[in-house]
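agent> Task received from the user: take the single chain below, predict its 3D structure, and emit C-alpha cells. No templates, no multimer pairing.
agent> Plan: (1) validate residues, (2) run structure prediction, (3) serialize to C-alpha cells, (4) report one or two observations.
agent> Step 1 OK, no nonstandard residues flagged.
tool_call: predict_structure(input=
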Amino acid sequence: MLSVVDVSKSYGSFAAVRRVSLEVRPGQVTGLLGPNGAGKTTLIRMMTAYLTPSSGSIAVCGHDTVDASAAARASIGYLPEAAPLYPEMSVEGYIQYRAGLFGLPRATRRAAVEAVIERCWLREMRRRRISALSKGYRQRTGLAAALLHNPPVIVLDEPTSGLDPTQIRGMRDLICDLGKTRTVLVSSHILPEVEQTCDRVVIIAAGQVRAEGSPAELIDQHAGNAPAFVSVEAAGGERAQAMLAGLPAVASARRVSPPSAPIASFEVFANEFFAKAAGSAPLLAALARAAADAGILLVELRQVRPSLEQVFEKVITSSAQSEVSISQPPRPVLSH
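)
tool_result: status=success, residues=336
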C-alpha cells in the first residue's frame, strides 16, 4: 500500500504541495489528475523517494520513504514520463543491466528478463539499440524495467505517451491486470484513459487534493441539477414544446438547434429539447408521464450527465477561483 499523510513540499516561499493526504490501496488502480503546475510530479517524486517531504510522511508497504528509503524504493516499480534509458545499449542488454541493479539472483534473472520482454511486447526489438527505437518502444522498455523485480507498488507517469492506438489498448489491459494484485498509481492527462482504467481518481490543483472518488462518484457529485434530453417524433414537436412549457417539474426548456445545421436536417433537430428540473423532483419520470398523457411518442429520454473531463474542468476552475480569492483579500473600506 502507498500511504501519504499530511505531506507538504516547499521551495523557498513557494509551496508546490500543501498538506496532501491519500491512500492507494492494493488491488486498485488510482488515477492522479491535475493541470500543469498542480504539484503532481513533485508528489510522485516524493512517493518514489526521489524527493524528501518538507513535512508529513509517506510509506510504501510500511516503509517510510525517508527513514527506510532503500526498502521503500525496492517496493516500487516507477516509470517516469521520460524513461531514463541508455541509448547505446540494446533493449535486452538494458533490461539485464537493470536486473543486476535490482540484485535479482542469477538463477532467476533470465526468466524475469524473458517475462517482462514478453509482457511489454518487446520480443521483436530485444536486439535493437535503444537509440534506434521509437518513443513508444522506449516507453515499453522503461515499463519492462519497472516491472522486472515484481514490485508490489507500481507508479506510472503518462504510461501511454508515444504509443499508437493498438498499443494504448494493450497498455490499458496491462494496467487493469496489474491492478488486480498490486497497488497501482497512474498519472495521466488523458481523461478517457483514466476513466477506463482507474477504480479511483484523485484530482490535485495548486498543490492540494481538490476531489477524489471513483469516476462514477465524481460524476454523481458534480451532476447537480442535470438537464434531461427529450426527443419526440416529428409530428409531436409543437405539442412537446407546449408540454415542457406547462409542466411544473420543468424550470426551463430549449430546443436543440445547431447553428450550422442545413435546413433539410433542421426539422429533425427541431424536435429535440433540453429541459432543466424545477426543484428535486425526478424529472425523467415526470416527463415520461406527461408525454404519455399528451399522446406524444418519445424517441429518446435521458439525463445529460457530465463527463469526467467536464468534472475535472469544473474542479480546476473552482480551485483557481478560490486561490485568487485567498491571494487577493478584499480591500479595506476607507472612511473619509
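agent> Step 4: summary for the user.
The first helix runs from residue 40 to 47.
agent> Done.
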